[in-house]
Structures are given as C-alpha cells and as structure tokens.
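I can't quite decide. Please look over this sequence plus structure tokens:

:::
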Amino acid sequence: MKLRDIAGELYSIYNPKIAENWDNVELLLGDENCEIKKILVCLDITKEAVEKAVKENVNLIISHHPFIFSDLKRITSETVLGRKILKLIENKIAVYSIHTNADFAINGLNDFIMDKLNLNGKTEILDEADFYDYNYIKNENEKVKGGTARIKILDEEMELEDLISRIKKGLGIEYVRYVGENRKIRKIGLVTGGGSSFIQNVKEHIDVFLTGDLRYHEALDTREEGGILIDVGHYESEYLFADLMEIQLSRFFDGEIIKYFDSPVFKLG
C-alpha cells in the first residue's frame, strides 16, 4: 500500500485540523509514493524504537508524539535527534505522527482510554467540533467530529477509591497520584497526556479529572478548592496508543503491524 494512501485514510480518521495549533502532525519524514509493507506503531520515536524498526525492516513508523516540534537548523550526528533522523533516512523509514488529533477525534485516544476503565454511563464531549473538511489526498469532502475532554456521567455514584482501583486495573498500572479526599463521585473528566491546561474549562462540569503531568501548584489549588485530580502519568495514559492504532490500521492495511512499547521515562526509587 502506498504511503500516500495510508496518509489519506489516517486523515479521515484523525483529521489534523482538530489538533492543537502548536502541534506538528501528519507525515514528518518520507516519500509519500513509497510502498509500505510493514508498520511500527509506538508512543515515542526513541533510539530503541528506531533500532527495532531497522531490525524488522519496517517501512513506516506511526508515533503518537511527534519527534520534530521546533524548526530544525541542521541535521547532524552531533545530536540524538539528528542521529535518529539520519538513521531513518538511511533505512528509508517514513514517519507519520498523530498527536492531539488522535486525542480529540471521535473514537480516538481519549475515548479508547475511557473505555478501558469499564465504567457504566453516558459520555459527553467538551468543546465539541463538528464541521466538513476536504481530504486533499482522497479528494473527498468529509464530516469531522471531535472535542477536547471526555466526561463520563456514571449511571450510579462510586467511591473515589473504587475509581482509582478501576484505573489501575484498566490501564495495567501499579499506581496513580491523586489530590482530594475519598468521597462519592459521578462525573469523571479525562484528557490523556499532559492535560492540565484543560482543568479550568472542565472543572465546573465534573467531580474528578484524570490526566498526566500535573504540576504542584495546579494540584495545590485544586485541593484548596475541594476538587479531585488523578495524575495517571503521561506515559501511562497514552502508551496504549499502539493498541488503538493496531485496531484502526487493520481496517484498511493488510501488511504487518508491529506494536512497540518502550519503558516509562520515570523510575521509582
């Protein structure tokens, strides 16, 4: 399957126009006319992920986090990023990234992670987007829907402690950090990754907010206000991106899909 055709399908599923303005998504490296027979999907394009792709003769890496964010003035072997880019080019491996557009899309990462918690109730979407956009690759006008935070309104209230247990089991993690006292909750907000910028917008709609990378003063202010925050961890809230992509890619790509899971950045001492 041509890389251009894969990009066209991904454009339909994860429209880049619902990504944050600061983001850097879509095809970041490669020839759109090349043939793709094997894809590696991962959270981050680490040195280990690149080595795995080379070893497995992968043609395309699809990552959640873009490995190119700022303007590059030079690509040399003097930097880690430069060495990774050079190695990818030398081995003719393309790179496509789907970041905040994967988070915000309908049936994207926010929905996927919320479903993993196995909670009964209806889901609402904050800052819902609903518009038509022209897919320049497929030459089609397409309906686009998405939104930022996901809010689960439970059929019945549950204890905060029970929700924490559900999170750890559903995401396969050993611990979370949280702020707030144990009490009954019903409305649960979620943004994967570092979603602290959404706290102010979502707090009036929920009892507890789940995200990663919470900072001290954000947590302190929320505690002072009597709110509840759960810091799942940035890696921990997004590493299942590989599982989501395997599901989506298998619907139109008949080549081999390799899921690569790196280890969390932080270790517990």
Notes: The longest strand covers residues 150-159. Residues 160-171 form the longest helix (12 residues). The chain has two domains: 3-98+239-254, 103-237. The mean pLDDT is 96.
